[in-house]
Write a structure and sequence with these properties.
This protein is α/β, with parallel strands linked by helices and about 230 residues long. A 5-stranded parallel beta sheet has the order 2-1-3-4-5, with helices on both faces. The mean pLDDT is about 90.
């Protein structure tokens, strides 16, 4: 899952980024409204966290309004120091999905992020299962045939994205856009390397059919051979 954080206070922005990355999210950060709006309207994000008061030609409310007018319905969580009912109502009426008042506990931020993602069938944060493989986004546990599998944060994120889009061919570009952040140092074979890591951990040790497969010339798909769409 790829998240955009737009926050002009660098300390807060970087702390949120680190915390989200520890939860296996890919995170991009913008420090002003202009950069944030440009990224929000040109890059595919699964969730956006926007500060309400931002330097630039607009603010968090303006970003949300622009997104919705452009038919971009990515979930948005607004962060703000304004805690009056009318302030919260203004943000929600502009098209934001949730509102969190500063200062906030990171555990609450994560809970709200998961709640927003849970609203979409494709990004439900409940446990995912396919045949004998299960993945729990909250506990970050992966098991196959009852055996726990240890994954790195990036391997977990890649597997989660595969499992949210089963039996569907995904290009390398799609995987990069949703699993790696904007500043990541992506080499031409980076996706191949991580797919290889996953195969070594979730396919090779088990007698079950391979779940991560290649469609030559197109990309990869998660699921049983012959079931691709």
């Amino acid at each position: 899952m790829r998240v955009l954080v737009v926050e002009d206070e660098h300390k807060i922005a970087n702390a949120v980024k680190r915390g989200l990355q520890q939860q296996s999210y890919a995170v991009d950060v913008a420090y002003d409204a202009d950069q944030g709006l440009a990224m929000a309207t040109t890059e595919p994000y699964d969730l956006m966290i926007l500060d309400r008061m931002l330097p630039g030609k607009t603010d968090g409310i303006g970003i949300v309004q622009t997104l919705r007018s452009n038919n971009i319905h990515t979930p948005v969580l607004l962060l703000t120091a304004k805690d009056k009912v009318l302030d919260r109502a203004e943000g929600l009426n502009a098209g934001a999905d949730d509102y969190l008042v500063k200062p906030f506990a990171f555990v609450e931020l994560i809970a709200r992020v998961r709640a927003l993602l849970r609203r979409s069938p494709q990004t439900s944060t409940t446990a995912l299962a396919y045949q004998d493989l299960t993945l729990n986004p909250e506990s970050m546990l992966v098991e196959r045939s009852g055996q726990q599998i240890e994954l790195t944060t990036k391997e977990f994120a890649l597997l989660e994205y595969f499992m949210r889009h089963p039996e569907r061919v995904l290009s390398k570009e799609q995987l990069i856009q949703h699993v790696w952040d904007y500043d990541a140092d992506i080499l031409p074979n980076t996706v191949e390397v991580y797919v290889g890591y996953l195969r070594t951990k979730i396919d090779k040790p088990f007698k079950s059919e391979s779940l991560i497969n290649t469609k030559r010339g197109f990309g990869y798909y998660f699921g049983v051979l012959g079931n691709t769409k």
